[in-house]
Amino acid sequence: MTYELSTCILKMILLYIVILSSVTIPTVKSQGDAVCDCQEVGILKVLVQKVLFEQQMESARVSRLEARIKTYETTGPIPNDRLAMLEKNVNDINMKFNKTITETKEKQIGLQKVLISEKKERNKLVSSMNKIVNEYKDTIETFKEAMNNTIDKRFQDITAEQVKYKDTIETFKVAINKTIHKRFQDITAEQVKYKDTIETFKVAINKTIDKRFQDITAEQVEYKDTIETFKVAIDKTIDNRFQDITAEQVKYKDTIETFKVAINKTIHKRFQDITTEQLVYKDTVETFKVAINNTIDERFEDITAMQIKYWEEISLDLITLNETRYMVDTLGKIVEGGQVRLVNGSNQYEGRLEVWRDWSWRTVCDDGFDTLSASVVCRMLNFQHTNPVVFKSSYFGAGAFPLHLDKVKCSETDTRISQCMHSGWGKHNCSHDSGVGISCTPVRLVNGSNQYEGRLEVWHNGAWGTVCDDAFSEKSATVVCKMLNYPHSNPMVLRSAHFGPGASLVRLHGVYCNGTETSITQCPHREWGITDCDHHKDVGISCTPVRLVNGSHPYEGRLEVLHDGSWGTVCDDDFTAQSATVVCKMLNYPHTNPLVFMSAYFGAGKLPIHFDDVECSGTEISLLQCSHTSWGSNNCSHSEDVGISCTQVRLVNGFNQYEGRLEVWHEESWGTVCDDEFGTLSASVVCKMLEYQHTNPLVFGSAKFGAGILPMHLDDVKCTGTEISLSQCPHREWGSNNCGHGEDVGISCTPVRLVNGSSQYEGRLEVWHDGSWGTVCDNEFDTLSASVVCKMLNYPPNNALVVGSAHFGAGTLSIHLDDVKCTGNENTLSQCTHRGWGTHSCSHNDVVGISCPPDVRLVNGSNQFEGRLEVWHNKRWGTVCHDHFDERDATVVCRILNYPQTKPQAFRSAHFGAGSLPIHLDDVQCKGTETSLIQCLHRTWGEHNCVHGDDVGISCTPVRLVNGSSQYEGRLEVWHDGSWGTVCDNGFDTLSASVVCKMLDYPPNNALVFGSAYFGAGTLSIHLEYVKCTGNENTLSQCTHSGRGIHNCSQNDVVGISCPPDVRLVNGSNQFEGRLEVWHNKRWGTVCHDDFDERDATVVCRILNYPQTNPLVFPSANFGTGTLPIHLDDVGCKGTETSLIQCPHRIWGEHNCAHSDDVGILCQPVRLVNGSNPSEGRLEVWHDGYWGTVCDDDFTTLSATVVCKMLNYLHTDPLVIMSAYFGAGKLPIHDVNCTGTEMSLPQCPPRSSGSNICSHREDVGISCTKVRLVNGSSQYEGRLEVWHDGSWGTVCDHEFTALSARVVCKMLNYEVSVPVVYGSAHFGAGTLLIHLDDVNCTGSELSIFDCPHSDWGSNNCGHGEDVGIYCAPVRLVDGLSQYEGRLEVWHENTWGTVCDDNFGTQSAKVVCKMLNYPYTSPVVHYEAHFGRGTGPIFLDEVQCIGSETSLFQCSHDGWRIHDCDHGEDVGISCK
Predict the structure, then answer these.
(1) H or E element: which one contains 1094?
(2) What is the C-alpha to C-alpha distance for residues 584 and 621, in angstroms, rounded to an integer?
(3) Which region among 61-70, 383-392, 968-977 has the lowest average model confidence (pLDDT)?
(4) What is the rounded CA–CA span in Å between residue 494 and residue 445?
């Protein structure tokens, strides 16, 4: 049977099910659907009519049965004669049913085998087509268009897009209409070559050639647009679809028969005529060749014949099966179960026993009721009856019906309870407190060492069977243990027939419970008896009869065991780690390193003491198998209750036991932890769990100890350090992460440390022992011992130095070791010989110190300050790739080496020669503040995509400028022999200064020299004098001078230098604006506008000593396109930096933009101060390095318009406010007189700067809008005031709605969708005139003054009704209502999203309060629940306490500072 046939059969079954359920489901085409012709349509119609008729017949049969059942229910128990007849009928039905089931199963198995076979064929097709789709990604859009055209037109469009055919559409149409008889002859030889078998044809007939590409592309590539096209297509009826196809076919071929004939012929020659390029894509050609093996008529005749055959068989089977099952289920319950029932249990298999007698249900006494009697009841209910459980004393509650039976005693031959011996109907001597209960629980554990464990078997269809261990988890085991009324808090799942393979059928497969079910049959699983595993995979369970209580987390606590239905404690006598191992194994916890706690460490218990003198070997699987005193026999008290901790963490792949990749235990497996957010506090918790030193652990990111292969269990772990378990720390949900194994975190709890040194590589040696740090005596301690310490600290062991006599200070801790003697081959200091812990003959003045070599070095340079960078890892040196390596990374290296860090340089492309050692690191990205390279972001150690031609080099520049007003000027100091020193000004000229500027990577031209200690007399040594350079040197050391330290000048003669800034603005109309260019690698270059915003511009303005308030950024080469190299792209400053190189950016010279994207900047030389909001205030301008006020003489609205334009505010009708309305300034006074057309105030004609005849009482003020919000807690809210007739005034709240508020917010340049209106003088009653009343805007107006309102000054309200507005700078979008959605905030005149990292309900409350929405129980939605945003990501790590009135008052990382993408956009529901 072919794949297409099985697909159509399944389609028929689906249609039948749909009809039976009376639910209309759209027919979504799958990858395997074939395009049916008119013959198939007719067949489908006939089959639909047949199914509808059979449905009517089925409904009639069901109605008759329901009527009979209703009659039985109203008349009570069935008379014996009628009962016998019904029993006979049921037996007949059962026989028929079982026969039908058997036959159906055989057919199902046969069909399943065919489907499996066809699935393999389909997978082959999918695999081959997947290759084609991957090669033809660009053709997806062409495929979409092709769906709506004829088959011929689709071939044309697809072919044209796939291989870029040169022929025109008309040429293609002509080619299609030509006869292809000659082509068939040409392709015959090719067909034989490619094995044109009927099997290959069956694969090809799933679709017409074009539709096949369309469907495969839609499923495999999952293009949403194509799916939408499918949704439209499937709404059409089958008849309409074929009519449309036929109509289009007729357009190009007179009849469908003509078309079929054309398709039967080969198209190989046609594709040769269209293009020779298509032959390159052999897989596509081969696929087309397969499609032409047979005619469409033959294909559909085969399908139709087999469809009819299998449809008739399956439909009849289904009808018979459903009818038989219904009769058996309904009549069977009446006949067999109608006289007994179990009530008040947790599931259908258990409860209080009740029997039907005299038209009512009645209870049964527990006197004499045993498992044989229970077995009869279970058999009557058709439940498992081989091992029922009897519960006495009304275990399932006292019944309310009369007691009816007592002293029931059944035999093995009884099949009904009425056949059993009893005291007589209605005769009893018991009360309702003695009611009997039964559990016919259909599960059991067999072949275990005790009742709580064994192979799981389930009862079904009258027999026991095993369960496959696939997907079976602790949650499923929990359900089983609950069903058996056993302990279920920590069950164990034992796989691979741990308790031996069963002999009965495998009943269940794929059981997947969530743990809350009351019966295993409620859990999802495959159909009963459907499985592909054998008894070697029979699952076993241990309903662990041990528990740990009173611990701080589940993995530790006082040990208690279950015996004889009650819990009890265990004595600590002789209890060892081996016994703890057994307990931890029973609890399914890690058991490699359990801890035993004596003397009631977790509190004294109050339950009986069950065990004493427990001794295990550690190999047992149950504590009950270990030797111990008899149950209840002991000679101890509860003060000796034993406790256990089963450690849940481990360190693997480290150099010693104290370090390695962190792995945690969760849900039956170890898994790794992501290094995101993982700090030393989190490492401290891990070390505490391992009982290692935890005061100064080390954290290693980027898979320092190798990438794991186990699941990634945890991410974003952020401990406070006080936790005693990692699971108590905040973290993402288990298994949820956004990282790969290249970010596996590693930890070192190394029990040695170096303290009180000048760097991390040196200091007094201290070792950890018995829970505390202590020092080591210097007796016998040599370099070999020091090398072991350096190895433990992951530093190079060679050339380690030993310093005795408390060189790094005398410690105050205990002296732990003396006479330490190592060979150098040890991995830990504890492996070396020594006197013994705590035994010594020295004082604190004799403690040893060590200096380890740094784990970085520079080699192959012309001096010690430069060279190829090499790092120490895994006991050897290796190089570093230049990818992403910049000055910040070089700064860290120079800091480690104790070299100058002022202006380091990074050299690419093996500048200092290609190395031959392993490449250790790639993609290193430091912030510049780290003290070690391993603290920086980088790829996994040893993982890279570079060669030694990419080895990075570094120069730790040995010059600096100090005591200047900026980084570009200051007293010159040079580094020599480990210290800085000054340089005399004798003979020092601009050529020498240009060399210094080059060394600092500043522009060398126009360097200035300042003598006579212009930047202050130094206090350091004078290193150089008579320095004389030609200007061509690369370093100062290459210039002539008097010699190091040789001079005859004083500190009053030291030289100073001023280098030009490494940024400039060019091509602007004044000095404050222009295209941004930066200096790098000895030349100027431009900067891309990508991600460049006001914060980046602020840094540039600061460098140039220009105003930094409200700078403007101009994208798209506003100041003309540059011609120099593009130096920087994706610059992302915080705004606080003093240099652009401190900001994140791409590698120098790496970009994805053109000069048309060159960024420009305006360092805003105007500002408004002392206003109630940013758009108003006293005008101040920047001139000659200072701010100054402006006189109001002749200052008009035209000048104000220019100012508002510069500040990017509304500038259509600004206000000029005279006479120091916003307060008198204290700065210099300037005059300006603009025409209004200028783009910048410096373009306006000035009066002579600083020369004026006015005082500060005439300082001019400006308001760029005639509305303002006053008396609010932020600029976004307050009492509304409007300007009219020379004065501000309030607005009455009558008729004032959110639409009017929206207009006001737009005027203030706030973009909000849902502003909040406050009436009744919410922001205080004003004292000014009431200007407006009855304002009623539609929301579309540009100004509130365009809205309908009462006459100016006309109102019928008082200031107690002054309106207030809140232009909320937050909004919720893409939700189902206004109260939910993705959170977006307004900043920098645009909306942006917020990251979900650490965003909690308190933060959500603040947002809901800002929006005036309900906020008592908000819900936070993570991972872009409401869709991914498209704007900037403004905020991350937002953490509110809930009392804030604005989200911006909460702590966060800073605007635009984040480490997330839009897949982590946070959403909120306000409730």
Answers:
(1) helix 1094-1103
(2) 10
(3) 61-70
(4) 12
Residues 6+ apart with CB under 8 A from 167: 160, 175, 274, 275
Distance, in Å, from the CA atom of 398 to the CA atom of 396, rounded to the nearest integer, reads: 7
- List Cβ neighbours of 788 (8 Å cut-off, separation of 6 or more): 797, 822, 824, 826, 827, 828, 829, 832
Claim: this prediction has a pTM higher than 0.70: no
C-alpha to C-alpha distance for 660 and 744, rounded to whole angstroms = 10
Query: Residue for token digits 């390159």?
Result: 280
pLDDT of residue 302: 52
Q: Taking Cα atoms as reference points, which of 1171, 1192, 1168 lies closest to residue 1179? A: 1168
How confident is the model over 289-348, as pLDDT tens digits? 454 444 444 544 554 454 445 444 444 444 444 444 444 343 333 333 347 888 887 677
Q: Is 26 exposed, middle or buried (0-12, 13-18, 19+ CB in 10 A)?
A: exposed
Kindly tell me the burial class for residue 1181, based on how many C-beta atoms sit within 10 Å of its own C-beta (0-12, 13-18, 19 or more): buried
Using CA atoms, how far residue 211 sits from 33, 256, 278, 1021, 1467, in Å, is 10, 17, 19, 84, 40
Q: How far is CA 1020 from the centre of its chain?
A: 53
204-227 mean pLDDT = 42
Chain centre to alpha carbon of residue 616: 44
What is the bridge-based pairing of β-strands 1277-1284 and 1267-1271?
A: antiparallel
**Residue in this structure with the two tokens 């109509």, named with its chain if needed:** 247
Q: Mind listing the pLDDT tens digit for each residue in 1200-1238? A: 888 887 776 765 678 888 888 888 887 666 666 676 666
Higher pLDDT, 624 or 1213: 624
Yes or no: say if 797 and 756 are a contact pair by the CB < 8 Å rule: no
Q: List Cβ neighbours of 609 (8 Å cut-off, separation of 6 or more).
A: 568, 569, 570, 571, 632, 634, 636, 637, 638, 641
Q: Which amino acid is at 1008?
A: L
Tokens of 1306: 């737009």
**DSSP H helices in 178-255:** 181-193, 198-204, 209-221, 224-233, 238-252
Closest CA to 29 of 42, 48, 10: 10
Q: Which of 490-499, 706-715, 1082-1091 has the lowest mean pLDDT?
A: 490-499
Tokens of 750: 């190394």
Cross-strand bridge partners of residue 777: 847
Non-local (6+) Cβ contacts of 418 within 8 A are: 339
pLDDT, tens only, 9-31: 444 444 444 444 443 333 333 33
β pairing state of 1083-1087 and 659-666: unpaired
Cα–Cα distance between 519 and 521 in angstroms, integer? 5
Tell me the residue type at 658. Answer: Y
Q: What is the DSSP string of 1278-1324?
A: EEEEEEETTEEEEEB-TT--HHHHHHHHHHTT---SS-EEE-TTTT-
Eight-state DSSP code of residue 31 = T
Token pair belonging to 570: 């265990």
SS3 286: helix
Q: Which residues pair with 944 in a beta bridge?
A: none
Contact between 692 and 727 under an 8 Å Cβ cutoff? The reply is no
Neighbouring C-alpha atoms within 13 Å toward the C-beta of 874: 15
Are 348 and 381 within 8 A, CB to CB? Answer: no
Length, in residues, of the chain:
1471
User: Is pLDDT of 410 > 60?
Assistant: yes
Tokens in use for 1365? 């507005």
**Tens of pLDDT, residues 910-960:** 878 889 999 999 999 898 888 888 788 888 788 899 999 889 999 888 888
Distance CA 196, CA 5 (A): 20
Q: What pLDDT is recorded for position 980? A: 86
pLDDT at position 77 over 70 = no
Are 1386 and 1369 contacting, i.e. CB atoms less than 8 angstroms apart? yes
1409 contacts 1419 by C-beta, under 8 angstroms: no
- Residue 813 confidence (pLDDT) above 70: yes
